[in-house]
Specification:
The protein contains 15 helices and 17 strands. By secondary structure, the chain is of the alpha/beta class. The strands form four sheets. The protein has a seven-stranded parallel β-sheet with strand order 6-4-2-7-8-9-10. The radius of gyration is 23 Å and the shape is globular.
Length: 401
């Protein structure tokens, strides 16, 4: 008799806003058709959760350090009583022995690259303490969980994350694989001239002109100050140039640094539920981030066919070949301004960068992400069955691909 394997998938939040939440939604929505799926999480926000057994871990959302601790304790206890064939976690969040963990963010890698805390300099003492404690907890969890004896296989979302895992934890190279996130190319795609004008009209923006776009939260980390400064230096030479900033942050602080004569040409749009609209109406995407693991927003900009200027951070370096699919910039004013000026002088002749980026990102789909995940499941189940000398036969045990 053959049966579907029982897969337990663990995460704080599944579905909703955010790259990690989107990844989980896309994979789990497909996985439920192939496995007996149990999701252990605090929230489950799927368009269709039919076929999924959800075990809710009710914990407070604030403060974050306490939430992390409570989730780890309660989820670990609950999972101990669940019979399963595969336990798949999202990061180092529980103490149970797991078969797979998908790593979206390596805290050890971040500390080595950026510094000791994710707290911003202009935040309150409480927020800095909150961020520091959360970071300490994450580092502690990684040290306890990312061991072959505890978590057998790690799945990195980019080559940068794999390098960080290889450098910080004692895994054989074969036990850390890369499965990149996908991009919805039906949602993010190049807009025609008329479609661009329609979108600009829809949001009451000028229809004519060249639009620079910055998108994301954590503005100090992602380098918005350099984008604003560069725009300020170029605005007098390019009178039809606009800057759109999509995301949550201290817009008053950045706006106050602008000359009054150009202030109305910088649009702080706040958080938006339809990022595809803002990408669709824009021409150039600027992203001088200091650290990324897999920058989904850059991949979505590539799918939209935007000319991309980005730093060499996780995911970007896998997607962009400098001068062929976009421009790899340094995280400083001079580099951004020089490259932007070169593009703005001859915008049409640089359109090929966006076209090539679109071709590159076409190979990354959520279906591919799911299929690669399923393939490692199948291989693992077959090998596990063989190592145990037989036993219950899974529907995937007919042979290895």
């Amino acid at each position: 008799m053959k049966r579907k394997p029982v897969v337990v998938y663990v995460a704080h939040d599944v579905g909703g806003h955010g790259g990690m939440e989107l990844h989980l939604e896309e994979v789990i929505s497909r996985l439920k058709n192939e496995c007996e799926l149990i999701v252990v999480s605090t929230t489950l926000k799927l368009k269709n959760s039919t076929g999924i057994r959800h075990i809710k871990i009710p914990v407070i959302t604030r403060p974050v350090p306490l939430r992390l601790v409570l989730f780890s304790i309660f989820a670990t206890i609950r999972i101990a009583f669940i019979k399963r064939d595969i336990l798949h976690t999202t990061g180092a969040i529980i103490f149970n022995s797991a078969d797979f963990s998908t790593v979206h963010f390596c805290h050890n890698g971040y500390i080595n690259a950026v510094g000791n805390t994710r707290a911003k300099n202009n935040t309150s003492y409480f927020k800095k303490l909150n961020s520091l404690l959360a970071s300490k907890i994450a580092l502690f969890m990684e040290s306890k969980i990312y061991k072959p004896s505890k978590t057998k296989n790690l799945i990195a979302v980019s080559n940068r994350v794999k390098e960080e895992l290889d450098s910080n934890f004692a895994y054989d190279a074969k036990d850390v694989v890369v499965i990149p996130n996908g991009v919805d190319t039906k949602r993010f795609y190049p807009q025609s001239y008329n479609e661009k004008m329609h979108l600009r009209n829809k949001y009451n923006l000028p229809t004519q002109g060249t639009f620079l776009l910055f998108m994301g939260g954590d503005w100090p980390l992602k380098g918005l100050e350099y984008v604003v400064q560069s725009f300020s230096g170029l605005a007098q030479s390019f009178l039809d140039l606009y800057l759109i900033v999509v995301g949550k942050g201290d817009s008053k602080f950045y706006s106050s640094a602008l000359e009054p004569s150009i202030r109305n040409r910088v649009i702080f749009a706040g958080k938006q539920t339809r990022p595809e609209d803002w990408m669709g109406m824009s021409d150039i995407f600027v992203f001088p981030s200091s650290y990324e693991t897999f920058s989904l927003v850059v991949h979505e900009a590539a799918a939209t066919g935007l000319i991309i200027l980005a730093t060499r951070v996780g995911g970007v370096e896998d997607l962009i070949r400098d001068g062929k699919d976009g421009i790899l910039i340094e995280r400083n004013l001079e580099s951004i301004t020089t490259h932007l000026n070169n593009i703005l002088v001859e915008l049409k002749s640089h359109r090929y960068l966006g076209e090539n980026a679109r071709k590159n990102v076409a190979r990354l789909s959520w279906e591919n992400t799911f299929e690669e995940t399923m393939q490692i499941y199948k291989t693992y189940l077959i090998e596990t069955k063989e190592s145990r000398g037989g036993g219950f036969e899974y529907i995937y045990s007919q042979g290895k691909k």
